[in-house]
Write a sequence for this structure.
């Protein structure tokens, strides 16, 4: 009997399940010999929810969970009728090492913080996603803004289209970059990849704004701004570099009104490049006539003339106007003289007495001998015999100023002689100038006719 007992003791476990009554034995222990690859994690009892989205991590789609996970306890169901696995799992390696084992990352100079900290799951879902690259959130709206607060740029008036649409990767690398700010390219090279027309105009231009060559972000905010074109400022932006103009604006009695209008400096100047000197958008005269093609109210309340109308109606242009160079007489930014003139020029019809300094503007071009030499021949065309009539007009009580007889911009007659002038309340007092073979005549307002006849002797040498 001893031999039979021994045999029964050895084989009886094999037969127990076959004839044992229900409840007579304890529950079966987990099968420690079960292999990981035999476990179906995505069954209805466990993780069936992990393969329902359009983008699946490859190990998930192939049910190869053990590529990333390792069982800490024996595998197998808690009882034979359940498909649920009771094992505890852990990642095979630390998160960053685990991900880079399949997704190697080249280490560049600048690394995105989640990458450097080994937190791939900050941006990516390890199993499935509704978005490409297994991103955790909708990339064009939410993902980047989890860390980069939208209040920093999306609430401003002017938002760069890629930032507005969430297309951050147009400009930034997601993981690491050789460029600061994780940029895909540096400086103006990055911007011109989209703004090709700006680069083409820049390359073809005669005059180029240096920041465009160097880095567009010196003037533009790459994400957003409260200023048009995402500029970092308006007038103050330009003055950060053009400090000499800023100092003049601060000290000047008069500032060109265009600078305080919408657009400021950009009303006249291009921010990138131009065919014209000083980065003007248009030829110099055309730039001025953009505003001065209608009456313009000056800072002192006076109504400035429609210069475009004057030029259209009068064939004889003052030299600077003929050269299309308004800035020869006017400072385009600021000044201390009447009408932003670069030098003194009398605004009155009369001066109490002659003073050469009062005509500083005129004598930047004209020879001062015109009013300093009393007698001679051919000093000017305005002489009676050997008497210089320019001298006679200014060297007298109630000295006549240039504006008494001459137009500053354009006239209907040579030598810019006025057809009329303003005198007191008389807004169009007539000059009635008439050319004579050897001189001329005028009958101004209520005065009698005066004639002059030039002499025939050789001219007096006059040099500046």
């Amino acid at each position: 009997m001893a031999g039979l007992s021994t045999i029964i003791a050895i084989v009886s476990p094999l037969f127990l399940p076959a004839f044992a009554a229900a409840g007579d034995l304890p529950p079966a222990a987990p099968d420690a010999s079960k292999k990981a690859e035999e476990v179906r994690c995505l069954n209805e009892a466990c993780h069936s929810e992990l393969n329902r989205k359009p983008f699946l991590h490859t190990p998930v789609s192939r049910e190869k969970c053990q590529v990333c996970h390792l069982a800490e306890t024996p595998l197998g169901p808690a009882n034979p009728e359940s498909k649920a696995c009771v094992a505890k799992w852990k990642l095979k390696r630390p998160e960053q090492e685990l991900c880079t084992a399949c997704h190697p990352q080249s280490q560049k100079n600048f690394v995105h913080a989640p990458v450097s900290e080994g937190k791939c799951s900050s941006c990516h879902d390890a199993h499935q996603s509704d978005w490409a690259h297994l991103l955790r959130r909708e990339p064009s709206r939410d993902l980047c803004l989890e860390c980069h607060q939208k209040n920093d740029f999306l609430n401003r008036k002017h938002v760069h289209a890629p930032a507005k649409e969430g297309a951050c990767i147009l400009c930034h690398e997601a993981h690491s970059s050789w460029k600061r700010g994780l940029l895909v390219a540096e400086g103006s090279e990055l911007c011109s990849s989209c703004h090709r027309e700006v680069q083409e105009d820049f390359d073809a231009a005669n005059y180029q704004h240096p920041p465009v060559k160097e880095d567009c972000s010196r003037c533009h905010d790459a994400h957003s701004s409260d200023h048009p074109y995402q500029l970092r400022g308006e007038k103050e932006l330009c003055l950060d570099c053009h400090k000499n103009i800023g100092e003049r604006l601060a000290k000047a009695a008069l500032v060109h009104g265009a600078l305080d209008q919408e657009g400021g400096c950009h009303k006249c100047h291009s921010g990138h490049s131009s065919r014209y000197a000083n980065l003007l958008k248009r030829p110099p005269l055309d730039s001025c006539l953009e505003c001065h093609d209608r009456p313009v109210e000056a800072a002192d309340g006076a109504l400035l003339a429609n210069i475009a109308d004057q030029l259209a109606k009068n064939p004889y242009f003052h030299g600077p106007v003929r050269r299309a160079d308004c800035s020869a007489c006017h400072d385009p930014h600021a000044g201390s003289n009447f009408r932003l003139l670069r030098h003194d020029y009398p605004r009155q019809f009369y001066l109490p007495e002659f003073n050469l300094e009062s005509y500083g503007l005129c004598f930047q071009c004209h020879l001062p001998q015109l009013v300093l030499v009393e007698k001679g021949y051919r000093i000017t065309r305005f002489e009676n015999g050997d008497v210089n009539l320019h001298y006679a007009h200014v060297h007298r009580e109630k000295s006549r100023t240039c504006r008494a007889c001459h137009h500053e911009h354009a006239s209907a007659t040579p030598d810019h002689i006025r057809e009329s002038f303003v005198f007191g309340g008389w807004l169009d007092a007539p000059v009635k100038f008439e050319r004579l073979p050897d001189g001329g005549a005028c009958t101004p307002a209520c005065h009698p006719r005066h004639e002059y006849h030039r002499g025939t002797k050789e001219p007096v040498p006059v040099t500046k």
